[in-house]
Amino acid sequence: MQASPLAVLTAADVRTSGVLNPDVAVDVMRRTLAAKRAGVAVDSPLSTLTLGEPGHRFVAHPASLEDIAGVKWIGANPENLRHGQPRASASVLLSDRQDGRSRAVVEATSISAARTAAVGALAVEVLASTAAPFSVGVVGAGVSSLAFVDTVIALYPDLVRTVTVFDLAEEAGARLVETLRERGVAATVAGSVEEAVTAHEVVVLGTSDAVTPYVTPAMLEGVRLVVAISLNDLTETAVATSGRWVTTDRQLLAYDLSSTARAVRSGAVSPDRIELLEDLMVDPASGDRPEGERIVFDLWGLGMFDIALAAAAWRRQERDHGQR
Ligand SMILES: NC(=O)c1ccc[n+]([C@@H]2O[C@H](COP(=O)([O-])OP(=O)(O)OC[C@H]3O[C@@H](n4cnc5c(N)ncnc54)[C@H](O)[C@@H]3O)[C@@H](O)[C@H]2O)c1
């Protein structure tokens, strides 16, 4: 067997490849979810190594799609934020699906944020009405929330009317608001969770899986779609009083730090009612929705999302530099 070199893509290579552009990332996620629906993209259950404090963990997400099998490896420690470091870092190992050879290692921290944002933006496209501008509430002003807002704006430039941001760390909220204003978005800092949630049609939760749930049904008055990137913010009643529950994978239901999984386990929500985004992409929910119905979208981060985007970056690099 002729040895082929193991390609290494740095963060700069990934950026240069163009896969972080919202339209590219959304297109790759759309195709990945369709491949999942067709049964040709598959994830195996993730494996978590927990190390002490809440949120300090390493997670391996194996998946296979097209001619690739791979694993996303992500290390996170919320403590990093106190030292001005990113909370999480990720890389992806890509192997040939047929013969098992390792083909590329891809620095994937920015891929993780881009794929999360792209799947969240697809949820907005499929689950919210994109006919009229809406206001966005953000709780947790980190990397994921910024990427989400950026992607929705890139996809639908005239759709986001205002963005209201709450973060426990005031400077993080102020930083996100400033960044959004620089992009021409009408953004304001909220003084409380309620202010960032109540009456905003679309709410994004991007805090920390370690939190005690704090978003109550009363806070969710007027909210049409909750995009839960962090999965443990809603109280069980906030989940139970919603009208529809959508996710990207049923692995969510086995996850301890998931509000929806808890509501299912307690019997408040029947597991049969949990819908998959890939099915609704074919049969959208955004048409005739009952007045006042609230959808909770739990964004379960599948390995195939990162692997698909990392593989796209690798293929683009090889196409441009002929390294395959
Ligand atoms: N679903 C997915 O696929 C996926 C992908 C990436 C990240 N995540 C999760 O999303 C969350 C956010 O990720 P990130 O990379 O943007 O994190 P980040 O650390 O960059 O930002 C999180 C922000 O939330 C704030 N925060 C924490 N608790 C809060 C609370 N109770 N109220 C208000 N603000 C609060 C922090 O101060 C911080 O600014 C994490 O829990 C992460 O595990 C999920």
Structure overview:
This is Ornithine cyclodeaminase. One of its GO terms (cellular component) is cytoplasm. This protein has 324 residues and is of the alpha/beta class. The chain has 2 domains: 7-111 and 303-321, ornithine cyclodeaminase, domain 1; 116-298, NAD(P)-binding Rossmann-like Domain (Rossmann fold), CATH 3.40.50. Helices cover 34% and strands 24% of the residues. It has helices spanning 11-17, 22-37, 109-127, 143-155, 170-182, 193-197, 236-240, 259-265, 277-282, 303-321, and strands at residues 7-9, 41-43, 47-50, 57-65, 68-76, 88-96, 102-107, 134-139, 160-166, 187-189, 202-205, 225-228, 244-247, 274-276, 295-298. The strands form 2 sheets. It has an 8-stranded parallel beta sheet with strand order 10-9-8-11-12-15-13-14. Strands 1, 2, 3, 4, 5, 6 and 7 form a 7-stranded mixed beta sheet that branches. Helix 2 (22-37) crosses helix 3 (109-127). The radius of gyration is 19 Å and the shape is globular. The two termini are 15 Å apart. The mean pLDDT is 93. Bound molecules: nicotinamide-adenine-dinucleotide. Nicotinamide-adenine-dinucleotide (NAD) is lined by residues 81, 87-88, 112, 116, 139-145, 166-169, 172, 206-209, 211, 229-230, 299, 301. Nicotinamide-adenine-dinucleotide binds at residues 81, 87-88, 112, 116, 139-145, 166-169, 172, 206-209, 211, 229-230, 299, 301.
